[in-house]
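Please check this:
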Amino acid sequence: MLKNYLKISLRNLSRHKIYTFINIAGLSIGMACALLLYLYINDELSFDRYHEKADRIYRVSTWFKLEGKAPQYFASSSERLAPVLPKEFPNEVAQSVRLFRGTEKKPIRYKDKKLYLNGIHYADSNYFKVFSHKLIKGDPNKVLTQPNSIVLTKTVAKQFFGRAGNAIGKVIKVFDNQSNKVTGVMEDLPKNSHLRFPALVSYATIYDPKDVNRWGSANYYTYVLLKPKAKIESFRKNVQTVFTKYMVKDFKHFKATAGFRVDPLVDIHLSEFAYEDDETIKGNKAYLYILAAVAIFMLLIAAINYMNLATARSAGRAKEVGIRKVVGSYRSQLILQFLLESVLLTLISLVISITLVELSLPYFNYVSGKQLVVEYSDPSVFGLLTLIMLLVGLISGSYPAFFLSSFHPVRVLKGKYVSSRNAAFLRRGLVIFQFSISITMIIGTWIVYNQLQFIRNKDLGFNKERVVVIRTFGDTTNLQRNALIRKDLIKHQGVKEVAFTSNVPGQDGGSGTDAFPVENAQGKMRITLAHVLAVGYDYLDMMGIEMKKGRFYSRAITTDTSKALVVNEAFIKKMGWKKALGKKVYLRTDSLGKLVKGYDAKIVGVVKNFHLTSLHKKIQPLALRLISPRKQGHMGYLLVRLKSGGVGKTLDFIKKTWNKYEKKYAYESYFLDKKFNKQYQADEVRGQIFMAFSGITIFIACLGLLGLASFTAEQRVKEIGIRKVLGASIPSILRLMSFDFLRLVVWASLFGGIFGAWMMHGWLQNFAYHLPIYKHWFVFIFSALLALLIALLTVSVQVFKVSQVNPIEVLKDE
């Protein structure tokens, strides 16, 4: 029996080649795209889950609340927090580890080999008891116990020593003044880890027992491993008592309170909570929801194509059903036949879709920056493919099966079969659904594109063009080195400006955060949290930042190094000042928060707001502190603005000048605009993925409309012939036949516009700076017109083809 059903199904599929091609094309492309999106989404959801105890690892972050201010949240916490947690909560905390995350490049040297490693971390000795990073060489219980111990990743070890095993016992230098013995080599961190580092140095290397003022700062990341039976709700509540017991004394002078947040390790990558200092490159849940919806919509649209075409062909298969019922077929057998035909079609499409996935996966990995593979031997992957095949096959074949099997043989064989009104109504509803989704995709594509253009072209408040950034390193033996480099550079004809700064826009958050007493609007001194950026005298001109009020730092005024402060407009707004110039600020307090004499300064200038970070974040209150020329050798970055023309030669001169004065550290530079724009790389990748799959979704919908229009036109071929005999012109026939479809697209434009506006409004909330949704009004009009044009062209091609048939050939049997 099954063999007979299979033969009939294959015969029907081969007999109607266009119908079969349209369905297989739609289903195979839809399933291939859905599988690719599944791989992407699954990879995003897999972050940090590879750790054996991932479900019990949490990060403890900190919030601070100054008197009268809103709380501010930091992913980091106090250096003293981690050792306290197991002691205070022995029934809940199995291990706690602190991690000092290096966010900048550091020079590493072994003999004559020099490398810059980005983000060397410092970790407690029990790090490998919490995290499941595999050690190739070394004892996980001992590699980080001694001061000046370092664990290299496999790639770094090979770069220095050729083989990982050769690294053990070797001594390398960090910053040329810190000798570290290689005690272990670990596997490179997988890409689905929120922690990214090339090497781990023992915490004992930087621990200073004399420094007792560590509760008041938050510079470390604290991770806890809870015991198997510990309840996270209880720990979240209990950990708040740490502030009362240990921290309240340090904070009462600041008139501040503090507390903790506890985040699951596996949620960090997709966390939507905004921390002030979290520089981890995160994923985005909103994108995943959208991409998951796109994958589902693709499968639904492909299934709808099948349902539409099957019901449209109902008249052609009515006699088949009638005859089979007359000769004794049960309705259940007919239902099984049509479902088998649908599943068979889906199976063929699935095989083709797997081929498409294998062909497109390298390019998809290139665009997405991932290393996705399909493990067909994995039971979960095999189960997913089987589930997709059965679901799509049964969903797409269900209505045609029950609809076609319900025909009455007497009416059908007498030629009195008329397509039911319910079937026509369903087809119209499905077409509206298809094009509603397509229009939503068009709207989404355009808004994503417009937002990316907006963030590229928005005025940042500074000029990032033709600025070369050079990392510098402090050296107490040569404080004049950077001054000499600047002196030579500024004389070169290709150099326009040179300046020093502690950080640059787009680099590690752009600035640090500090708390210091500031005179408020009522004339009282209040502790205020603000971002702080150390700059040189030439920074303002170098960056092209505009002064709003007052003045910038001047070499002619010697007291500017300790008695002056420049802030931005956001700082003024936060303080509520009407007149900012002259307001008092204390640039230093002691360990108890008391003011230190000699460090009382005044606001001498206000600069216009400028973006130190991406447009995802709002501009924060910023204090620009002046660093004395004597200490510029300790500053982090040298900025050189080039003149237009001869860029290559100027870059060569900069490198030669660096090497002339700097003998220890290798020259390394980059262009500021490229670094700043890199912040949007993840958005652009996601945008490209969304745009590509949106286009494919629209294509699949058009395939279905093409098939439906083809069958509709063929069914009305006699009507067209009669109209031509009666004198109807081809344009009038096109208008008549296109009207029904265009009316459906108009309804789809309404529903798609509403859903698209709601969806993209939510997506735009990921950016602190964006155009409001109503300013994209032209996108909604354009999307509706584009959908109408696509539908009109699709339908018109088929109607025009049928309208060219000679009426005599059509009506000769009437």
Observations:
- Residues 723 and 733 are 8 Å apart (CA to CA).
- DSSP finds 24 helices and 24 strands in the chain.
- The first helix runs from residue 2 to 15.
